[in-house]
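Sample pair:
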Amino acid sequence: METPNSPFATAYLRFLQLTRIVQALPEGMEMDANESALLEAVVLRWHENQPMTVREAIAIAALGSPATLHKRITRLRDKEMLSTLNTPSDRRAKFLIPTQRTLDYFNKLGQSMQQAGNNQAG
């Protein structure tokens, strides 16, 4: 069987292996690919200091219908991966905010990515 000869392909495949291990570790944090994609979109916007509202999240057509996305938000909240925040200026808008559990999860993914890079360099 042929192995990838590109160091980039090898590094990425190693990263995928490490990601799978990290994703399997925390109990109660199991997510399907669609939940992960939604969580990543929400956290990326939060990281860019532009938190996403529930309304904006359920409008991401590429990730599903509004009803499906609302169910995914509910599941992520039930798993304590997301919380909501209302601002005093607009009580109607609910912003999606990552929980500490989510930040820890992304920290572990980042460590895996760094480990994959270190393994590739060595």
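The mean pLDDT is 84.
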